Every structure is written in C-alpha cells, then in structure tokens.
Amino acid sequence: MLEQRKSALKRALADQDPQVRDAAATALDQLEALGNLPQLLAQLTGADRRSRIAAVHALGRVHSSKVFIPLIAALKSEDPDLRAAVARVLGEKHHPKTLAPLVRALSDPEAGVVAEIATALGRFHDPRLPKVLASLIGREEQIALAAIESLGNLGLPDGEEALLKALNDNRPQLRCRAVQALAKLQADD
Question: Cα 19 vs. chain centroid, distance in angstroms?
Fold first, then answer.
C-alpha cells in the first residue's frame, strides 16, 4: 500500500502544475520519513547527539501516532537542546495527546526549554492554557516573552488579565509584547 502511494506521488512529480509537483515532493518526503520510522526511533535513542536532534525533526514530518510516545519520552532527555527540539516539534503537531506532557515539562530547569514549551503551548486551543501561561510571565524574560506571545496566539479572552498585568512589568520588551498580544485576543461577547 505504501509503495502504491509512493508510485502515485512520483508520477505527480511530473504534473504540469508546479503546485502539484511541490505538493508531491512534500508528500514524498513525509512518506519517506514514515517508511524510515523504525530507523528514526532507533536514532532518537542513539548515542550521537546530532543524530538524535535530526531524528526529532524527521519525526516531526511523520504523520503517525507512533511518534508521540517516543517524543514525549525524549522530553526527559538529559540534553536540553533535544528537549527544546522535541517541544518545538510537539507544538507543530499540537496533538491533544501531547498537551499534558508539555505542561508537566514546564518544570524543566533550562529557561530555553521552558520558553520552547511555552511557545508550543500557543498552538493548542485549550481553555486551560491562559492560566498556565500566565503563571510563566513572572519568570526569566525569555520564558515570559514566549508565554505572552502564546497568550496572544491563543487569542482567548481569559488571557487578558495576565496581559494587562504584564503592561505594568518593568521590562519594556514584555510590555511591548503584551500590547501586541492584547490586539490578538478575541472579543469576549
């Protein structure tokens, strides 16, 4: 079945329409990653740091529920760069199954990882997230900026109180980001 899909997509690479050709190339890339899933999962737990991070990004292109458990497990890696890459990929996928593990990972000791997680959470449309993200605004600037931007990206009116409070922060970048985020909030009818 996978071979039939690949064959059809390879034919589509020769389509007269450039958009069809581009879509076929992207789809082939995704199918190739799916076909390499066992190798990618092995690479994710391998010894080479670069290979692990490359595996995370490749798994981001795989459309299969089989990638979530290994990626969630990688959120506990000793390598902060790997944890940040996993958070980024899980945010791009924004599958409901990954929301709770991402929220739990907000206790990560590395500010850069927490900022990536906060950014990832801005891609989930969950009414519980404004409270979670608001709790991050008092932390390091990198984390607070990501939380504020995610509150804006969520667009939920429940984020308004935290954003209004951020307007009084002594950090100008936070105030600026809060102003931008306030403009993105949905009207509370």
Answer: 26
Distance CA 4, CA 62 (A): 18
Token pair listed for 189: 């009818």
CA distances (Å), 48 to each of 33, 42, 44, 185, in order?
Answer: 19, 11, 9, 43
Six-digit token string for 144 = 């607070």
State the Cα–Cα distance between residues 171 and 169, nearest whole angstrom.
Answer: 5
Phi, psi of 168 (to 5 degrees): -100, 5
pTM: 0.83
Nearest to 148 by CA among 135, 138, 158, 163: 163
Q: Indicate whether 80 pLDDT > 70.
A: yes
Q: Which two tokens stand for residue 106?
A: 């907000």
Average pLDDT, the chain: 91
Q: How far apart are CA 89 and CA 73, in angstroms?
A: 13
CA–CA dist 185, 41 (Å, integer): 39
102-158: per-residue pLDDT in tens? 999 999 999 999 999 999 999 999 999 999 999 999 999 999 999 999 999 999 999
Crossing angle for the helix pair 141-154 and 111-121, to the nearest 10 degrees = 10
